[in-house]
Each structure stands twice: as structure tokens, then as C-alpha cells.
User: What shape does this take?
Amino acid sequence: MTQGTFKQTALKEAALLFGLLFLGFVIMPIAIFWIGPYVLGEFGGYGYSDFFGGLSARIRSGDFVAWLFVLSPYLVWQILRITLFAFRASPGEKRASQ
Assistant: This one.
């Protein structure tokens, strides 16, 4: 891997991480706040700012579940990539048409 290729790959992966982290930290809490009352029941706080403040406080305190929630888009993407890589790398069965 050349220096230029490594730099491009690192920038691509960093952009992917930050984009999916934005999705997990900003977009998903908004969606859960809007959809949550229909699926999980009423939230016991004072609106979205209280909900987001509670989530960010749990993240700052190192709560594992809160971090898992925020990182879940990136983790799911990486699991999908690893799974696809494993399927491509495995020899599999030979096709009947060969």
C-alpha cells in the first residue's frame, strides 16, 4: 500500500466514522424521541432538550449502553463489511453450471 493510497483510505474511513457518528449522536436520538412514545411509551422528561441532555450526560459518564447506541450505525456497518468480506473470501460450493 503506497503512502497516497493509505492516506486516501484513512480519510475515507475517518469520513465514514464521523458521518455515522453524526447519525448516531444527532439523527437517531431525534428519530427515537419522535417515534419512541408510539413504540416504547411516553418519555418522562420535559421535551427533547431533556432527552438529549440525559443521553449526552450518560455518554460523558461512560455509560456502555449509551455509547453502544451512539456507535451502533458504525458498528453495524463494520459488521456488514466483515461479513461480506468473509463471504467473498470463502471458496463456497462450486456452481452446477461449471
Q: What stands out?
A: Residues 16-89 form one domain. The radius of gyration is 20 Å. Residues 3-39 form the longest helix (37 residues). The CA atoms of residues 28 and 70 lie 8 Å apart.
